[in-house]
Design a protein that fits this description.
The chain is of the alpha/beta class. The protein has 19 helices and 17 strands. The radius of gyration is 28 Å and the shape is elongated.
Length: about 475
């Protein structure tokens, strides 16, 4: 059998394919499509390094640019940004200077020519023979680039499977880290404890506020919840207010729902959560908590409490359809009917809170007329009047939402860009509540440190209008608590 020899690419081919290294030091970063869709602004994040965009990435962006979703909007932003960077006169494969001192260029992978010039590419396609798969073409493009430019060459992708494939063939690979929070910022930490003497704690208990000085509160931020203690059994929760004063929580004994079930806070975490939810000076509340801690139910109760007290014009609730970019147009029925399967936990909470307390045990058999009347849910009238609203996140772009209590459940399924879209929709008089569990991620391109919930909490921390609470104690049942912690 005749041995295949490498046919070297010419100097012109190297330049035309974007394989010639630009002048100047710096790494060569190859960007995967999901990084650009995740954060279109990433093109400005690589300082004095060389950015390489495979031509196949542009083809993949074309698939999404017509979507009327956050993903489609991001694809269009990338196209506009690249058009602006390259301009009409630029040679896109030879590199255009960036503001940070690096360059950006397109890189072309032509299998008919490039495979003949590279033993590594032929080996790669023996391992991954599907040449039409975009992921494989981007990996092949990165391998080819690494052979012709000064190292290092790094593939940046948020696709975990692609990272594994890259490492299998010797490609240096990294996640996009710009919007990742520190590990401690995504953890559900215990409440900070501050030691006071007996007199200080008594003074706080009687006056409702105390100022401890910067040396004792310097590591706290505005609206952080702490536990003041003077001995093992003498503790009082507090919140750090503006001006450095610790203030007493304002929590009613129960949240009253007219003609429904009242909700009583069952633990310290829920008391802190209710204090933040009812505080008119706080317009953004983030909450971490595993299943069964009551984060959704408490938020719903506080929202209904505020609506019935006429503090808000209505209650808007939603959950991501993992991910927010997914289309729902092919599902049958109205928008509410399409969202119903994903929002069923919200309807369950509404029914629990708004239904009169019923006796336990079996119910007598109803007549046909009684059964037809029983189909009416206690919240249906408020939904029909628009007081309670179901909002599809896929269609939230461009909206302005004033005077609403807006609850976004399962917010850990959002990307940071999607979370920004939701936050920037809130108008005056609205309160936004983001709840979720950073450890329960179904979205393919975010994790416990890069999802929209932890990103929003980290970026908004210290703002006078923002508060955060972590719930750790399960209250659904002993079974649910054991399942969440042991299984």
């Amino acid at each position: 059998m005749q041995q295949q020899t490498d046919a070297l690419l010419t100097v012109d081919q190297l330049a035309n394919f974007g394989l010639k290294s630009p002048e100047g030091p710096g790494k060569h970063y190859v960007l995967d499509t999901n990084v650009l869709l995740h954060e279109p602004g990433c093109l400005n994040r690589f300082q004095d390094n060389h950015l390489c965009i495979p031509a196949d990435v542009l083809s993949e962006l074309d698939r999404f640019k017509t979507e009327q979703t956050e993903r489609g909007a991001n694809a269009r932003r990338v196209h506009r940004k690249l058009t602006e960077i390259f301009g009409p006169q630029s040679q896109v494969t030879k590199g255009v200077p960036t503001d940070g001192g690096g360059t950006i260029r397109l890189v072309i992978y032509d299998p008919s020519l490039c495979e003949k010039s590279s033993k590594e590419l032929r080996r790669f396609h023996r391992i991954f023979p599907d040449r039409e798969r975009v992921d494989h073409r981007i990996l092949a493009c990165t391998l080819l680039l690494a052979e012709h430019v000064d190292p290092p060459v790094v593939l940046v992708t948020k696709d975990l499977n692609m990272q594994l494939k890259a490492r299998a063939v010797g490609i240096t690979c990294e996640d996009y880290l710009n919007d990742k929070v520190a590990p401690q910022d995504s953890a559900k930490r215990e409440m900070v404890r501050l030691m006071l003497d007996q007199n200080e704690l008594q003074r706080f208990a009687s006056s409702g506020e105390i100022e401890l000085g910067d040396e004792r509160t310097s590591e706290l931020h505005v609206n952080q919840y702490v536990l003041l203690e003077a001995g093992e059994k003498q503790t009082i929760p507090a919140r750090l207010g503006l001006g450095g004063k610790l203030v007493r929580l304002v929590v009613p004994e129960v949240l009253r729902i007219p003609d429904g079930n009242h909700l009583k806070p069952l633990n310290l975490g829920q008391k802190c959560f209710i204090d933040a939810l009812l505080n008119p000076e706080i317009s953004l509340v983030t909450c971490f908590g595993q299943a069964g801690t009551g984060k959704t139910l408490v938020a719903m109760a506080a929202g209904l409490h505020g609506v019935f007290a006429r503090e808000f014009n209505g209650l808007t609730v939603s959950r991501p359809v993992v991910s927010m970019g997914d289309q729902m147009g092919y599902l049958p029925g109205s928008l509410e009917e399409k969202m119903r399967p994903w929002l069923q936990p919200i309807y369950d909470a509404l029914e629990l809170l708004m239904s009169p307390q019923n006796a336990k045990g079996p119910k007598r058999k109803r007549s046909k007329s009684e059964s037809e009347g029983a189909q009416q849910k206690p919240y249906d009238d408020l939904v029909n009047q628009g007081v309670i609203e179901v909002e599809a996140l896929a269609y939230i772009r461009g909206r302005s939402i004033p005077n609403r209590f807006f609850i976004l459940d399962e917010a850990q399924q959002l990307t940071p860009q999607e979370a920004k879209t939701v936050v920037t929709r809130m108008s005056k008089g609205s309160k936004l509540v983001l709840v979720g569990d950073p450890d329960q991620i179904d979205h393919p391109y975010v994790d416990s440190r890069s999802n929209g919930l932890v990103f929003t909490r980290q970026r908004m921390r210290g703002q006078s209008f923002a508060a955060h609470v972590s719930l750790s104690r399960g209250e659904r049942s002993d079974l649910a608590e054991a399942g969440a912690s042991l299984m």
